[in-house]
Sequence to fold (242 residues):
Amino acid sequence: MKNPAPRARRAFLRVSGIAAVGTLATACGSATAAVPTAAPQPTEAPVSSPDEALARLVEGNKRFVANTPTNINHSPERRAALASGQAPFATVLSCVDSRVPPEIIFDRGLGDLFTIRTAGHVLDHAVIGSLEFGVAELKIPLLVVMGHEKCGAVKATIETLEKHGKAEDDIETLVLGIEAAVEAAKAKGGGLLDTAVHENTVLTVQKLKELPIFASAIQEQKLKIVGARYDLDTGAVVLIEA
Fold:
């Protein structure tokens, strides 16, 4: 009688191989089924007033501070919808500092913010013209001037003025634009850098409010201009009376 063991082993291996393939297929199928579908993006009604626009920014900053972002308006659908035009609900004039990105700080997405950034949010004709375009053409109801803690442009201005020197090339333009805020801060006393950052924001807001396009829109209650300060340590934005 022949030994049936080899035949039995071959049969066992074939069965085991089939079972292994089945197990792998099941596992692969389970992995595929476990991939979550993208959550639907939250939708918002158009902003109806300057106060509503400001409330959206405040709420967005609260989410940023709490590390609970919605990532609203980041979807491919949002990107496609904006190809035909834009309707941002707020303008943010802020510093160029890489630690102060407005869209992230306010938890906003594509098409939400009309962002203009210069060192120390210094104004010039191009900046003012861009801000005016936002109000006159895009009908943006809110303009936020946002300074920030430990602003390098303000600090450099203070150091240049203390040395009675002059900054290199066009950097001097920044010194000239921030100088009045430093002098105002000296008159008030206290921590010079932080006070100068505050005064720089206040003076910028006041300058903008006096310009005809902005003054008219404010009088018609179609525009609000506010100052703000961003805290690098906490991520919080605090509004400033100006």
